[in-house]
Design a protein that fits this description.
Layout: E1 23-26, H1 27-35, H2 39-47, E2 51-53, E3 56-57, E4 64-66, E5 71-73, E6 76-78, E7 85-90, E8 94-95, E9 104-105, H3 106-110, E10 119-120, E11 128-135, H4 138-145, E12 153-159, H5 165-173, E13 188-193, E14 196-201, H6 208-215, E15 220-228, E16 231-232, E17 241-243, H7 246-249
Helix pairs in contact: 1-2
């Protein structure tokens, strides 16, 4: 899926003067924001006559980019991304990092411009698949990950041993995880099959679901996150992503 479907918005504050030409920012900063190059690299790029604005080559970094202008660098049109919100179906074997020498990362699949400005909303470990949110809006992601907001995450677990009603009661009471002095918050465990269960948690501790099952003497063989809050993964295939709608963004 390509980034031209990414939900983006540029917010520009300006005086309400009729027919006023709006400017987004200086051209050198625009290059830095859209490509990840430093200001010095942007200046050298401009001096090499590699950048045009609305068809005209511009060499001065102090030049301001008009709202809606077409900025092209070496034949590639640059787009300034505003607040961006994505849903990604993380496959097994992919890690939640911007860069890794040994594994595919989330951003290897997303192919975002300037990926260092984006982050995953929470993390899924290497062997866990499912719904992962990605954004460049820190306040929005904090509302999802902060325990005080109680955002429920739903996981489907395939287990080595049968799940019992005693496990259901233990999850509801709170569990003592190894190496963690504080009990987990009450969680809902729903038995789906003999060795399959749904787990609904409001926290995001390190490897929490796997450690919770370990605390009751079981082992997770496969783990998949199906839902975050009221947002579910839907029909996205592993490795695919899409932009969230306005209504989905407003859920958090």
């Amino acid at each position: 899926m390509r980034t031209d479907h990414i939900y983006s918005r540029v917010v520009v504050e300006y005086a309400e003067i009729p027919q006023l030409v709006l400017y987004i920012m200086r051209l050198d900063r625009f290059l830095s924001e859209t490509t990840g190059m430093s200001r010095k690299e942007a200046t050298r790029t401009l001096h090499r006559s590699e950048v045009s604005v609305n068809g005209d080559v511009v060499k001065k970094g102090a030049a301001h980019v008009p709202d809606g202008a077409e900025v092209v660098w070496n034949g590639v049109r640059l787009q300034l991304l505003g607040p961006t919100y994505l849903m990604f179906h993380k496959p097994v074997g992919c890690i939640c990092a911007n860069d890794d020498p040994n594994h595919m990362t989330v951003f290897s699949y997303l192919d975002l411009p300037n990926p260092d400005k984006f982050h995953t909303v929470g993390r899924l470990d290497l062997e866990t698949s499912g719904l992962l949110l990605v954004t460049n809006d820190g306040q929005w992601s904090h509302r999802i990950t902060s325990p005080k907001h109680g955002c429920t995450k739903v996981y489907r677990a395939q287990l080595a041993d049968p799940v019992s009603e005693a496990d259901v009661a233990a999850f509801a009471k709170g569990l003592q995880l190894r190496g963690d002095p504080k009990l987990t918050e009450p969680a809902e465990l729903v038995i789906v099959g003999e060795k399959e269960a749904l787990v609904k948690v409001n926290e995001g501790r390190y490897h929490q679901v796997r450690r919770m099952f370990a605390a009751v003497g079981n082992k997770v063989l496969e783990l998949h996150r199906e839902q975050v809050g009221e947002l579910s993964l839907g029909e996205l295939e592993p490795g695919e992503f899409r932009a969230l709608t306005d209504a989905e963004i407003a859920l958090f």
